[in-house]
Amino acid sequence: MSVRTAGPGDLGAVTGTLAEAFLDGDLAGWLIPDRATRRTVYAGYFRIFAEFFLAHGLVETTGDLDAVALWWPVDHRLDLDIPGYDERLVKVCGPAVGRFVQLDLAMHNSHPTGRPHHYLAFLAVHPDRQGDGLGSTLLRHRHAHLDKWGVPAYLEATGPRNRELYERHGYRSCEPIRVPDGPSLYPMWR
């Protein structure tokens, strides 16, 4: 399975894979209970991140674009300064924006500081390909580089299945992040 760095021409496919992979994910029903509304919102929501990471971060993908990983190098503090993020978030999320803001704040306030690392913001595998080892392929690829450089990695798992995948790749759980009136996230460090 080949891994490559995605480019600007992959925006539609990267956005689509992210939206489809998370459509029925662990946080989906809490963020937006109605699935049809969620599908529409997720298309715009994940486009915000796909655009930013394709231009300023690192997006790795399998050759078929059925799996994507969005990585961000963190020096001493997470600083994802996405231009117009607040306005875009309100526009794409509509009435659900409050829950997205709660999630963002909980993750941002719990993000480790003072330790350089790479942050895995999203790992997404299209639902038709989940269980085929694509996520593991992307993780092994990036970890080979991080290990060579001696750089740790951090992420937030959204549930037990994801946590188990990351544990198999050397991540260890930290204290859960509690989202007010919402789900828990499981920060992990490698």
From TrEMBL:
Transmembrane feature ranges: none
CDD domains reported for this sequence: NAT_SF
Taxonomy, superkingdom: Bacteria
Domain N-acetyltransferase: 1-190
UniProt cross-references to InterPro entries, sorted A to Z: Acyl_CoA_acyltransferase, GNAT_dom, Trichothecene_AcTrans
SUPFAM superfamilies listed in its UniProt record: Acyl-CoA N-acyltransferases (Nat)
One Pfam family this sequence matches: Acetyltransf_7
Name of the protein this chain belongs to: GNAT family N-acetyltransferase
Organism: Dactylosporangium fulvum
